[in-house]
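quick one, 169 residues, struct below
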Amino acid sequence: TISRPIHQSIFIDRRRSGTRFITTNEEGTIYIVNLDGNAVKKTIKTFSKNHFFEYSDLDGNGSDEFIFVDGNRLEVYKFNGDPVFSYKFEEEITMRPSLYTFSSNDKKIGVVSDKEREIYLFNNDGQMYTNFPLRGQTLFSIGKFHYGSAGYSLIVGGDDNFLYHYSVK
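---
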């Protein structure tokens, strides 16, 4: 039995070697569970029971990364546990990070700091995307409004029930 945080997801990882499930417990220990029930535990470091966890191949190299948001920190690790990058926010992050796919080898991580009323977008190497942070305080969507348009549109909720529309190149 794995004591998972209430807001934690279970990820399905489909590999050539077989399908497996990946999640974390309340301390942030990663559990990799094969369909036959065998489990491997991987501890990178101890996280609080309020951490958020994502699992995705950010750079398209065929190996997924572990993405943690805990308190005011975003931390990304390679599958072997080596750090990729980390970022310290001014305030605690209280919403799950979002992942945005721009191409097969380019995913970005979106983070909302509702207390700062700012949104952040990080490239897969940890660099903050150009012109970020931006004003906003809700989870946000990135997509194309018009077929064939050169850039993307970002829509986010803001103060006084306004929606903000930003152009993301």
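The chain is about 0% helix and 45% strand.
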